[in-house]
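Q: I'm teaching a short session on how sequence maps to structure, and I want students to see two examples side by side rather than one. Could you give me a first protein with its sequence written out and its structure tokens following it? Keep the formatting plain so it prints cleanly on a handout.
A: Of course. Example one:
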Amino acid sequence: MDEAQARDVLAAAGVLPGPAGDARLLALGENAVFAAGDLVVKVGRDAELFDRARRELAVAVWLAESFVPAVRAADPTPLLVEGHPVTVWHRLPDPVRPAEPRDLAELLRMIHTLPTPGFGLPPRDLLSGVERWLRLAGDAIDPADAAYLRERRDGFASAAAALTPHLPPGPIHGDALPRNVHVGPDGPVLVDLETVSADLREHDLVVMALSHDRYGLPDAAYGSFTEAYGWDVRAWPGCPVLRGARETASCAWVAQHAPSNPKALTEFRRRVASLRDGDETVRWYPF
């Protein structure tokens, strides 16, 4: 799905008061995210994401009822338009500053105290998207690399299922990065709720550990995160397993962009090579 296709779906959805062509594209990944007036509209890449979109809206209502600062749905019902899920959200005020790791930690502490909601949440299966992302990559990537990632996926899925957690399991954000925090006039709020799950709380903490180890998050920034949360997941024996699972998923996620973006293919190859070599010092770059 490119921007033009997403705009066609946006126009067909008829959820904006003005022309879809006037909406501003904010992001293009698993979803195309458009802003217009006081609304934000997310257009999913394919129909497989419809159930996830429906759950994300339910999560938004639940977090509002639980007094957790998070993005709010403008319409609690998702649409399926030309094979694409479409959801409508209230637009947040302009940020007053960039989100910091400590902001994320404070929000995670709120979510990590909540019981699982009545509508239920799925486990955080980090690796469930690997097959779809590799399929979308098609012939753009080396078949041997795809086979390698499938083998890693299966190995880490088994290892993760056998972990003994340090923290009590329960609701998690699922993609706990500062980019998924928006700091407005009233403080930090969580955004991108589509991966909210019920699983090991350590999943949310391993994300920042990987940001430090692979993506160059400074020591001081990571330290502010662990201090605000109250624990460093790297002290947990299961950390390397969840880290390995997330690295595998991150490689496959980049692969889906390889057919149309040479930079994505370069980054994919760098990541896979570092995993094959067992070199944890190779720097990865956000994509």
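Q: Perfect. Now a second example for contrast.
A: Example two:
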Amino acid sequence: MDVAGRDERGTTERVLTLLGLLQQRRVWTGPELAERLGVTPRTVRRDVERLRALGYPVQATQGVGGGYQLGPGQDLPPLLLDDEEAIATAVSLLAGAGGAVVGAGDAALRALTKLDRVLPTRLRHEVRALSGSVESFGTGTAPVDPVVLMTLARACRDEVEADFGYPSGGEVRQRRVEPYRLVASDRRWYLLAYDLERDDWRSFRVDRMTAVSARTWRFRPRAAPDAATYVQEGVASRVYPHQARFLVHASADTVRAQIPASAAVVRSRGSGLCEVLSGAASLDFVLMHVLLLGHEFEVLDPPELGKRCRALAERLLSAGAACSPMPDPEES
């Protein structure tokens, strides 16, 4: 690169640094900016003029408390965020939109919309890839590598295959999939994808993936299940050796407030009724969990769970009888 090219690059980098400083603090004096940039106050004035020429409303005021500041306006040029900052901002806003921050859902969605309008085209596509490929159920997801999320989101958007290492049977095996959606649960991030090795839909925990990459091989999207519902049912029941369904005599909202979204699927069944689908290592555990909700309920599936209800009821009655108070001899 010749001298002129190096000078132009240095000026561009300095002007971008100046813009970043103006976005960090409300007011900077000329000497402060000159010291931070390692230039003279005269050069700062020239760089401010360059920003104004680009459309940034940099205001200058004189006197005590005066200096340079970015003025208000609805027509600001593209927001100065690097790739990592844009990804981190989008992930944080999506967490709020998914309910991870109580009461922040609508505000987060509005902020995402504004972010989309002011980001440069390149970063706008990346954020749209993430926001368009994410669904959620529950709140409070554990953090994962945002670069992995973005890689998977791009693959969902571009309809290209992805591969990654994933633990199975005590060893890490390579998986090749057609990615469909990222889903945020109340605890973790999951990927709903069509597993090409097993020829079926599968959900994968993103925090368990290693060496995630998007391939160049495109695929034609298949008819897919609802992403959030599929993943939630898998997390709450299909991963366990035993599944059970109950009809609970309480509203779905009431029961959802008592059971984490990752522990059970709760569906409304009309006024004052809901269906609960859950799984566990043993049917007794599921039964006791529903019993402790404190509502009347009926067993829908499986049939053998009804027998366990009767057996446990007899055991509880026997335990209660054993600790009944002895009659007072003086009252005989």
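Q: What should students look for in example two?
A: Point them to this: The longest strand covers residues 171-184. Also worth mentioning: Residues 244 and 303 are 9 Å apart (CA to CA).
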